[in-house]
Design brief:
The protein has 461 residues and is α/β, with parallel strands linked by helices. Helices cover 46% and strands 16% of the residues.
C-alpha cells in the first residue's frame, strides 16, 4: 500500500510521490520568537517531528527545514515594552524554543533558518515580483497585488479572513488597491530595525520571509509544507501567491499538511486569549513521553482538548505498554506463532501510518497486539521487544529501557529491591520490608505478593 496524505491543496488523500524519487524536501512554519512557545506549538511540532521520523523509517532521505521568524512586528513591539533591542529578544526566545524542542525530543529538523540571515534573498524575491508586475509601492512600503494573481484562494477555497485565521499581522493602509493586499517590504520607521536595500530602507513583511527562505534552501518548488490549520489563510495562501508569481512555476508545494489546534475549554490555545500553557510549564505537569503520547494518540488533523484527564489517560496508556515490555525476556526462545503474531501487528501498525499518518490507528494496533500476545499464554520475547522498539523509534513515548528487566536500568533496580525485600521478609524484618514497598510505591511501582513470587508493575496514573 503506498503512503497517502490528505493534501489540503487537492482536498483528498493523494499517493505520496516526491519530486525526486527517494528524497523529501520538507518545510514547516517555525515560531515567531517574541515569547515562550506554548503547548499548542508543541502539538504541531511533535506531529511534524513524527512525520519526518516516519518518512525516514520508510526509506526516504528527508531534509527538514524550519524557519525562525526573528524580524517581525510582534518582536519589535515586545522588545519596546521590555526596553531591549529586538535582536536580543529574538535571540533569547529562539534559544528557549530550541531548548523546548529538545526537551520534547522533537529532534528531526535538519536546518533552522533565521529570517534576518535571508534579507538578500527576500529583497531578490520582492524585486522579481516587481519585475513581473505583481507588486506596487506605497509610502509605507511594497505590497503584493492580489488582482495580479487569479489563483489566490486555491489552497483555502476563499479570499477573506475568518475567525480562526492567524491574522495578527494586519497591514493597514487605506491606499491599498485591495483590502487583502499584504506587505512585502515595510519602509523604515523610527526606532525599528531596517536594512538599506534597492527597495528602500526597511524590513521584510511576514509572508515573504518563508518563501524567500524555502527558495534559498529548496528552490522554487519542493515536496511538503506543514503547519497548523490556522495558517492556511492568509499565510500559506500568501506563500503560494508570492512564490508562484515570482517564479512562474506551479505548484510551489506538492503536498500541504495541516495540524489541528490544541484547545482549552473549547477555545484555541493562544497567547492573545491568555489561555495558554508554556511548554516548560507543561513539562512540570508531565514528562515529555506523556506529552508526546497525548499528542500522537490523536490524529494530526484533529483538534485536541487539553485537560488533566488528557494527561492522565496518556500516562495510563504509556504504562500499559511499559508493563507489557517489563514481562518480555530478550533472550528467550520463542515459537513461530509468536513471531508471526508480532509481524502481523507490525504490518497493521504501518498500514495505519501509511494511510495519512493515522497514529491513533497505529496505537490501537499496538494495544491489540499486546492483548493477543497476553492471551496466547506465551510470555513476550524478542519479537515483541523488536516491535515495541520500532514503534517507539517513531513515537518516543515509551520508556522501554527502564521496563525491560534484561536491559538493567530501573527495571533491574526494582528486581534488586524486591530480592532484598524477600530476604527481609524471610528474616521476619517486616518493618524494613515495608519501607522498601512504600519507597517503590512512591516511584509509581505497585507490587503484589503471591505464594511463590512477587509481581510488580508501573501504576497507570
Amino acid at each position: 500500500m503506498p503512503i497517502r496524505f490528505y493534501n489540503t491543496l487537492t482536498r483528498r488523500k493523494d499517493p505520496f510521490e516526491p519530486i525526486t524519487p527517494g528524497e523529501v524536501r520538507m518545510f514547516v512554519c517555525g515560531p515567531t520568537v517574541y515569547d515562550a512557545s506554548h503547548l499548542g506549538h508543541a502539538k504541531t511540532y511533535t506531529h511534524f517531528d513524527f512525520l519526518a521520523r516516519f518518512l525516514r523509517r520508510r526509506g526516504y532521505r528527508v531534509t527538514y527545514a524550519q524557519n525562525i521568524t526573528d524580524v517581525d512586528d510582534k518582536i519589535i513591539s515586545r522588545a519596546a515594552q521590555l526596553g531591549i533591542p529586538p535582536h536580543e529578544l529574538s535571540a533569547r526566545f529562539e534559544a528557549r524554543y530550541r531548548e523546548d524542542m529538545a526537551a520534547l525530543r522533537n529532534d528531526s529538523v535538519d536546518t533552522y533558518e533565521r529570517a534576518h540571515d535571508h534579507v538578500d534573498d527576500i529583497v531578490a524575491q520582492v524585486q522579481a515580483l516587481i519585475d513581473r508586475g505583481h507588486a506596487y509601492r506605497l509610502a509605507d512600503g511594497w505590497y503584493f497585488d492580489l488582482d495580479s494573481f487569479p489563483d489566490y484562494g486555491k489552497l483555502s477555497g476563499r479570499t477573506h479572513v475568518e475567525a480562526e485565521d492567524s491574522v495578527a499581522r494586519v497591514d493597514e493602509n487605506a491606499q491599498k488597491r485591495n483590502p487583502g493586499d499584504f506587505a512585502l517590504w515595510k519602509a523604515k520607521k523610527p526606532g525599528e530595525p531596517f536594512w538599506e536595500t534597492p527597495l528602500g530602507p526597511g524590513r521584510p513583511g511576514w509572508h515573504i520571509e518563508d518563501t524567500a527562505i524555502t527558495e534559498a534552501v529548496f528552490g522554487p518548488q519542493y515536496d511538503l509544507h506543514g503547519g497548523a490549520v490556522d495558517l492556511i489563510f492568509p499565510h500559506h495562501e500568501a506563500e503560494i501567491a508570492q512564490q508562484e508569481a515570482a517564479s512562474g512555476k506551479v505548484p510551489l508545494v506538492r503536498y500541504w499538511l495541516h495540524a489541528g489546534l490544541l484547545r482549552v475549554d473549547g477555545a484555541k490555545m493562544a497567547k492573545s486569549s491568555g489561555n495558554f500553557l508554556t511548554i516548560r510549564q507543561a513539562l512540570e505537569l508531565a514528562d515529555f513521553r506523556t506529552l508526546r503520547y497525548a499528542f500522537l494518540s490523536q490524529h494530526y488533523r484533529s483538534s485536541m482538548e487539553f485537560t488533566d484527564v488528557t494527561l492522565a489517560n496518556a500516562r495510563a496508556a504509556r504504562r500499559r505498554v511499559e508493563n507489557f515490555a517489563r514481562l518480555a525476556e530478550p533472550g528467550r526462545p520463542e515459537s513461530t506463532s509468536a513471531r508471526d503474531l508480532a509481524e502481523r501487528a507490525r504490518e497493521r501498525f504501518f498500514a495505519h501510518l501509511d494511510d495519512d499518518l493515522d497514529t491513533p490507528g497505529a496505537v490501537a494496533a499496538l494495544f491489540e497486539y499486546v492483548r493477543e500476545q497476553n492471551r496466547s499464554g506465551e510470555p513476550p520475547g524478542p519479537s515483541a521487544l523488536a516491535l515495541l522498539r520500532e514503534a517507539d523509534g517513531l513515537f518516543d513515548a515509551f520508556d522501554l529501557d527502564r521496563s525491560v528487566a534484561g536491559d538493567g536500568g530501573a527495571a533491574g533496580d526494582v528486581e534488586a529491591e524486591l530480592a532484598l525485600r524477600r530476604e527481609l521478609r524471610a528474616s521476619r524484618r517486616f518493618a524494613e520490608a515495608d519501607r522498601i514497598r512504600d519507597a517503590l510505591r512512591a516511584r509509581g511501582i505497585v507490587i503484589e505478593d503471591t505464594s511463590d513470587t512477587t509481581r510488580w508493575w508501573y501504576q497507570d496514573a
